[in-house]
Design brief:
The chain is an all-alpha fold. It is 67% helix and 0% strand. Helix 2 (28-46) packs antiparallel against helix 3 (61-77) and helix 3 (61-77) packs antiparallel against helix 4 (86-98). The protein starts with a helix and ends in a 7-residue tail after the last helix.
């Protein structure tokens, strides 16, 4: 009983304190200036990755995670986390710049396609012939009792 009363009292006190707490507004200047520092480090790291020629993803995973922690940290520190789509806009620009080639699918060579499809075609053609010969094997043999 005492525990229940204490819990209810604690909830009432906390809600009274929570009503007085005002969340500060997003400091956009602080967010933008610090995210630009994060992006400049990321840009310097990716200059040698050859992102213009092919998708750099597996090689730059560690650098990308470092950028993500940096941007998320400054979003929380500047009270901009969850406000609008600031963080999403930053990463959208990063993906458009550096990872535009990652979504492109390149068809395999023709020989590879033929090697993958040929066994299926062969099995489709020869399986009925094999089944037919196995089911009619005892019937067509002269001298058998047809069992």
């Amino acid at each position: 009983m005492v525990l229940t009363v204490s819990l209810v009292l604690l909830v009432f006190i906390w809600t009274g304190v929570a009503e007085k707490f005002v969340v500060p507004s997003c400091d956009r200047y602080m967010f933008d200036s610090n995210v630009n520092n994060c992006l400049s480090d990321f840009n310097r790291s990716l200059e040698t990755s050859g992102y213009q020629d092919s998708c750099p993803w597996p090689a730059v995973k560690r650098i990308y995670n470092k950028l993500k922690y940096c941007v998320d940290g400054w979003a929380k520190a500047s009270w901009c986390s969850g406000r609008g789509f600031l963080v999403d806009e930053v990463f959208l620009k990063v993906h458009e710049t550096y990872f535009s080639l990652c979504g492109q699918v390149i068809d395999p060579p023709l020989t590879t396609v033929i090697m993958l499809i040929a066994p299926v075609v062969m099995a489709t053609l020869f399986l009925p012939l094999l089944c037919n010969s196995l089911t009619t094997y005892n019937i067509e043999m002269p001298g058998s009792l047809g069992l």
